[in-house]
Amino acid sequence: MAKYVGVKCPVCSRRFSQADDIVVCPVCGAPHHRACYTQAGECAWAADHINGREWQPEARPAEEGRESGPNGTGCAEGTRLCPACGAANPVESLFCQICGRHMLSCRSSYTGGATYYPFGDPFGGVDKNETLNGLPVSDVMYYVGQGSSYYIPRFYNLEKRGGKIAFNASAFLFHFLYFFYRKMYLFGALLLLVFAAGLVPQFLLAREYAPELLYAMGLGPQATVNEEAVVFYAELANIAMWAGIGVRIAIGCTATRIYYKKVVREAAELIGRARPDDEDYHAELIASGGVDRLSVSLLVAVLVVCFFLASGAIMPAI
Fold first, then answer.
1. Quick one: which of 46, 203, 233, 308 has the fewest CB in 10 Å?
2. pLDDT tens across 90-132, in order?
3. Residue 228 burial (C-beta neighbours within 10 Å; 0-12, 13-18, 19+)
4. Given 37, 68, 90, which residue is the final one in a domain?
């Protein structure tokens, strides 16, 4: 019941601890001490069930925790508060057990809307005392950020067990976008060029077919199609399609290893510039790694614009 540690019981108003026996209302989800629930005989919010009220974690301002915690930190002995959602966690936790955010400080700044960490173990089952190519697994976890529970076991397999291939479905499906998402911009740019080159035969084929297609739809004058050009471009488009599939397979088979090399290289460079026991070092790991949603969003927007421009470029052919 780590999810409810630090939350107030609606009956007695005492905060739950790891050792408490907690029961949850099956209607609204409100947690209670078992003794409190038994004594009350029903949920503390039973009167509101008819209105569809559902329990939500309370927003606890930082000042409330500072008044009760040791040294004004707001943390009970052996615990610390998540800087994102305010939940109490064991002091050794690297990620919040409730929202999954990095536990970099004991300050609480709960703003609501926590995103729950889907796996619970940010190391993906690998011992947190392990090392990968000389790097502590915890450093790799900080650098990878989102998806660390997926990547760390695969990195471990590549490094410790001599694995050759760790197929990456995301890289296979999303091609160059995956590399931009994981901040591997050079690979992403090269694959973007390969992707664009593979579309050229289809663009040329569309230009040859467009006049006849529009004439058949009654939207343009009668036109003659260059059959030799159509056949040539169709063959090129077919070759490009199969080559593209081959590239995707190759990307899916090598992307995880490429990403692992990037993680090791850049984390090692950070160690050379900062002390690993410094909190700023972990913050820099997080900032340098993680994912880049903004560049992916901008790239998708640019691709949409290019699609419409290419469509417009076909029209003069009629």
1. 308
2. 766 666 666 666 665 433 333 333 333 344 577 878 887 888 8
3. exposed
4. 90
